[in-house]
Amino acid sequence: MTSYIDLQERGYLPRLLSREFQALLKEYAPARGARPHERLVKVEKIWREVVGEGIAKQSEVISYKRGVLKVLVVSTPLAAELTNFARQMLLEELASRGLEGIHDIKFKASDRPVGEARRRKEQST
Phi and psi for 14 in degrees, rounded to 5? Predict the structure, then answer.
């Protein structure tokens, strides 16, 4: 019978990822095993970096499941513009920042405050 140590000495077991690489994965790549809320917070942080302050104030990431990112936006025209003209570029930029698992983005216009407006309303109550 071969022991774990024998296998490791012979080079049959993969080496553990370096601590630095593990830290990067935790920070930028939402892990499958992560809690849904933690994963969504990471995705939202990267979303805000990718779209910039202007769009970030008018949008809110609401879910990330099975490779589909769902985002609420303040208006139907903005949803249409992002879907038709920016979707592919956003997918590529998100992938370049560690979110390769996202293969589609669904934009939905909201009838309630979104993004910055929602946060201001919550703070005032």
Answer: -65, 145
Q: What is the dihedral of CA 80, 56, 103, 22, to 10 degrees?
A: 180
- Residue 66 to residue 87: CA distance in whole angstroms: 17
Crossing angle of helices 36-57 and 116-124, rounded to 10°: 110
Take residue 95 and report the two structure tokens written for it.
């992938």
Q: Where are the domains of the chain?
A: 16-124
Structure confidence at residue 106 as a pLDDT band (50, 70, 90): very high
DSSP 39: H
Complete edge-to-edge strand list for the sheet that includes strand 68-73: 59-65, 68-73, 104-109
For residues 7-32, give the mean pLDDT. 55
**114 with 72: CB under 8 angstroms?**
yes
16-124 is a CATH 3.10.300.10 domain:
no
